[in-house]
């Protein structure tokens, strides 16, 4: 702890040590408070404050919801089986273009769904799954909707179709449990293909007319 009391590990400037530990500290801060009730962020507040004032770090830092989602999917936990983390004290500045993109995606959702089904390689029977992931993407881009009256960020949308929780699987027979896991995995694969398709499309805007 004494190393973190004044901000960065090695003084008043970022060092390689800060860069090396940042991903691990991020994950610990997000998951300890959610799954064990231990607020690491409160203990290391000077370090977090110093790091989050750096634009370069703000552009690449992870978010607690994503770190929590990874743990839930790995261990089959449901959202209500753990304490939700408190809203982060700092929200990096997000360009207005993200909100504009989210609103544009919402306004043209039907057309984008049809384009994705036609050109991303997913089956037409998965159109509803494609729509869910695109709607979630649009909601996630709408940054201002996650700010409360004090301008503090709240929880962003959960990723659709998580792996069934252990409790849910225990209530099913072996065959049904296996089918449920495979179905959720298949839907997540469709979602991954959908998001990859959108990423490739926006990276080649001249091709958007297709």
From TrEMBL:
It comes from the Eukaryota. InterPro entries: Glutathione-S-Trfase_C-like, Glutathione-S-Trfase_C_sf. Residues 1-89 form the GST C-terminal domain. This is GST C-terminal domain-containing protein.
